[in-house]
Amino acid sequence: MARVASSRKLPGVLAALQARWAGMSTRERRLVSVAAAVVGAAVVWLALLRPALHTLRTAPADIAQLQSTLRTAQAQAQELSALAAAPAVTGQSGDLRSTLDDWLREHGAQAQITALPGSVTLDVLHLKPQALLELAQAARRDWGAAVTRAELARGADGLLAGRIQISQQQGSRNP
Protein backbone atom coordinates (compact mmCIF):
# COMPACT_ATOMS: atom_id res chain seq x y z
CA MET A 1 0.00 0.00 0.00
CA ALA A 2 2.77 2.43 0.91
CA ARG A 3 4.49 1.73 -2.41
CA VAL A 4 1.33 2.55 -4.34
CA ALA A 5 0.91 5.81 -2.41
CA SER A 6 4.55 6.81 -2.97
CA SER A 7 4.35 6.01 -6.69
CA ARG A 8 1.33 8.29 -6.97
CA LYS A 9 3.25 11.12 -5.26
CA LEU A 10 6.29 10.72 -7.52
CA PRO A 11 4.83 12.45 -10.60
CA GLY A 12 3.71 15.33 -8.38
CA VAL A 13 7.18 15.67 -6.86
CA LEU A 14 8.79 15.55 -10.30
CA ALA A 15 6.39 18.17 -11.62
CA ALA A 16 7.20 20.42 -8.65
CA LEU A 17 10.95 19.99 -9.24
CA GLN A 18 10.55 20.75 -12.95
CA ALA A 19 8.56 23.86 -12.15
CA ARG A 20 11.22 24.93 -9.65
CA TRP A 21 13.97 24.29 -12.24
CA ALA A 22 12.10 26.30 -14.86
CA GLY A 23 11.78 29.19 -12.37
CA MET A 24 15.56 29.38 -11.80
CA SER A 25 17.83 31.76 -13.59
CA THR A 26 20.63 30.43 -15.81
CA ARG A 27 23.20 31.21 -13.12
CA GLU A 28 21.24 29.26 -10.47
CA ARG A 29 20.85 26.31 -12.85
CA ARG A 30 24.61 26.23 -13.41
CA LEU A 31 25.31 26.34 -9.67
CA VAL A 32 22.83 23.53 -8.95
CA SER A 33 24.30 21.46 -11.81
CA VAL A 34 27.85 21.97 -10.53
CA ALA A 35 26.80 21.11 -6.97
CA ALA A 36 25.04 17.93 -8.20
CA ALA A 37 28.14 16.95 -10.18
CA VAL A 38 30.39 17.50 -7.13
CA VAL A 39 28.09 15.44 -4.91
CA GLY A 40 27.88 12.71 -7.58
CA ALA A 41 31.68 12.63 -7.95
CA ALA A 42 32.09 12.42 -4.15
CA VAL A 43 29.65 9.52 -3.96
CA VAL A 44 31.43 7.68 -6.78
CA TRP A 45 34.81 8.29 -5.11
CA LEU A 46 33.70 7.24 -1.62
CA ALA A 47 31.54 4.29 -2.64
CA LEU A 48 33.45 2.81 -5.57
CA LEU A 49 36.93 4.09 -6.31
CA ARG A 50 38.45 4.62 -2.86
CA PRO A 51 37.66 1.11 -1.53
CA ALA A 52 38.89 -0.48 -4.77
CA LEU A 53 42.16 1.45 -4.68
CA HIS A 54 42.65 0.56 -1.01
CA THR A 55 42.19 -3.13 -1.85
CA LEU A 56 44.68 -2.89 -4.71
CA ARG A 57 47.21 -1.23 -2.39
CA THR A 58 46.89 -3.68 0.50
CA ALA A 59 46.22 -6.94 -1.39
CA PRO A 60 49.87 -7.88 -2.11
CA ALA A 61 50.86 -7.63 1.57
CA ASP A 62 47.75 -9.54 2.65
CA ILE A 63 48.39 -12.26 0.08
CA ALA A 64 52.03 -12.60 1.15
CA GLN A 65 51.04 -12.88 4.82
CA LEU A 66 48.36 -15.50 4.06
CA GLN A 67 50.77 -17.50 1.90
CA SER A 68 53.31 -17.45 4.73
CA THR A 69 50.67 -18.67 7.17
CA LEU A 70 49.67 -21.41 4.74
CA ARG A 71 53.28 -22.57 4.31
CA THR A 72 53.73 -22.68 8.09
CA ALA A 73 50.50 -24.66 8.54
CA GLN A 74 51.49 -27.09 5.79
CA ALA A 75 54.93 -27.62 7.31
CA GLN A 76 53.41 -28.24 10.74
CA ALA A 77 50.89 -30.67 9.23
CA GLN A 78 53.72 -32.60 7.58
CA GLU A 79 55.64 -32.72 10.87
CA LEU A 80 52.53 -33.95 12.69
CA SER A 81 51.97 -36.63 10.02
CA ALA A 82 55.56 -37.81 10.29
CA LEU A 83 55.29 -37.79 14.07
CA ALA A 84 52.06 -39.78 14.00
CA ALA A 85 53.69 -42.39 11.77
CA ALA A 86 56.74 -42.74 14.04
CA PRO A 87 56.62 -45.49 16.67
CA ALA A 88 55.97 -44.38 20.22
CA VAL A 89 58.73 -44.68 22.77
CA THR A 90 58.23 -46.15 26.18
CA GLY A 91 57.17 -43.28 28.36
CA GLN A 92 58.47 -42.12 31.67
CA SER A 93 56.86 -43.44 34.75
CA GLY A 94 54.39 -41.04 36.26
CA ASP A 95 50.95 -39.65 35.81
CA LEU A 96 50.16 -38.35 32.30
CA ARG A 97 47.57 -35.94 33.70
CA SER A 98 50.04 -34.21 36.03
CA THR A 99 52.72 -34.24 33.32
CA LEU A 100 50.30 -32.53 30.93
CA ASP A 101 49.24 -30.06 33.59
CA ASP A 102 52.88 -29.08 34.13
CA TRP A 103 53.50 -28.87 30.38
CA LEU A 104 50.44 -26.64 29.80
CA ARG A 105 51.45 -24.32 32.62
CA GLU A 106 55.03 -24.15 31.30
CA HIS A 107 53.79 -23.21 27.80
CA GLY A 108 51.20 -20.65 28.94
CA ALA A 109 48.29 -22.68 27.62
CA GLN A 110 44.89 -22.83 29.27
CA ALA A 111 42.98 -26.11 29.24
CA GLN A 112 40.82 -28.34 31.36
CA ILE A 113 42.15 -31.87 31.66
CA THR A 114 39.89 -34.93 31.81
CA ALA A 115 41.70 -38.21 32.45
CA LEU A 116 40.25 -41.51 31.32
CA PRO A 117 41.92 -44.92 31.41
CA GLY A 118 44.50 -44.88 28.62
CA SER A 119 43.82 -41.35 27.45
CA VAL A 120 43.55 -37.73 28.46
CA THR A 121 41.24 -35.14 26.91
CA LEU A 122 42.22 -31.48 26.91
CA ASP A 123 39.51 -28.86 26.51
CA VAL A 124 41.79 -26.09 25.29
CA LEU A 125 40.87 -22.45 25.82
CA HIS A 126 44.11 -20.83 24.59
CA LEU A 127 47.00 -22.58 22.84
CA LYS A 128 49.63 -21.13 20.51
CA PRO A 129 49.71 -22.96 17.16
CA GLN A 130 53.42 -23.78 17.55
CA ALA A 131 52.68 -25.25 20.99
CA LEU A 132 50.38 -27.84 19.37
CA LEU A 133 53.30 -29.23 17.42
CA GLU A 134 55.47 -29.18 20.55
CA LEU A 135 52.72 -30.97 22.49
CA ALA A 136 52.51 -33.72 19.87
CA GLN A 137 56.29 -34.10 19.84
CA ALA A 138 56.53 -34.24 23.64
CA ALA A 139 53.68 -36.76 23.83
CA ARG A 140 55.37 -39.06 21.35
CA ARG A 141 58.97 -38.55 22.46
CA ASP A 142 58.66 -38.19 26.24
CA TRP A 143 55.37 -39.61 27.44
CA GLY A 144 54.80 -42.69 25.26
CA ALA A 145 51.54 -41.18 24.03
CA ALA A 146 50.16 -39.67 20.84
CA VAL A 147 47.66 -37.01 19.87
CA THR A 148 44.86 -39.17 18.52
CA ARG A 149 42.30 -36.46 17.90
CA ALA A 150 42.33 -32.69 17.64
CA GLU A 151 39.30 -30.53 16.95
CA LEU A 152 40.62 -26.99 17.09
CA ALA A 153 39.70 -23.61 15.68
CA ARG A 154 41.86 -20.52 15.43
CA GLY A 155 40.37 -17.50 17.16
CA ALA A 156 40.66 -13.86 16.10
CA ASP A 157 43.65 -13.55 18.46
CA GLY A 158 45.47 -16.30 16.52
CA LEU A 159 45.29 -18.80 19.39
CA LEU A 160 43.77 -22.25 19.12
CA ALA A 161 40.75 -23.42 21.10
CA GLY A 162 38.95 -26.76 21.10
CA ARG A 163 39.55 -30.35 22.15
CA ILE A 164 42.65 -32.53 21.99
CA GLN A 165 42.74 -36.21 22.90
CA ILE A 166 46.05 -37.80 23.86
CA SER A 167 46.16 -41.59 24.15
CA GLN A 168 48.77 -43.84 25.74
CA GLN A 169 50.50 -46.07 23.24
CA GLN A 170 50.67 -49.78 23.89
CA GLY A 171 53.78 -50.78 25.75
CA SER A 172 54.18 -47.44 27.51
CA ARG A 173 54.35 -47.34 31.27
CA ASN A 174 52.30 -44.18 31.96
CA PRO A 175 48.91 -44.88 33.50
**Number of structural domains:** 2
* H/E topology pattern: HHHEEHEE
Task: Specify the structural class.
Answer: alpha+beta
Under CATH, the homologous superfamily of the largest domain reads General secretion pathway protein M, EpsM
Helical segment count: 4
Helix content: 55-70%
**Strand content bin:** 15-25%
CATH class placement of the largest domain:
Alpha Beta
Strand order of the largest sheet: 1-2-4-3
CATH-derived topology of the largest domain? Gyrase A, domain 2
User: How many strands, which pairing sense, and closed or not: the largest β-sheet?
Assistant: 4 strands, antiparallel
- Mean of all residue-level pLDDT scores: 85
* Spatial gap, N to C terminus: 74 Å
Protein name: General secretion pathway protein M
Transmembrane segments: 32-49
InterPro entries: T2SS_GspM
Keywords: Membrane, Transmembrane, Transmembrane helix
Summarize the SSE layout with pairings:
Layout: H1 2-23, H2 26-85, H3 96-106, E1 110-116, E2 119-127, H4 129-142, E3 145-154, E4 160-168
Antiparallel strand pairs: 1-2, 2-4, 3-4
Describe the overall structure.
It contains 4 helices and 4 strands, in the order αααββαββ. With 175 residues, it is α+β, with helices and mostly antiparallel strands. It folds into 2 domains: 11-81, no CATH class; 94-168, 2-Layer Sandwich (Gyrase A, domain 2), CATH 3.30.1360. It has a 4-stranded antiparallel β-sheet, with helices on one face. Strand 1 (110-116) and strand 2 (119-127) form a beta hairpin.
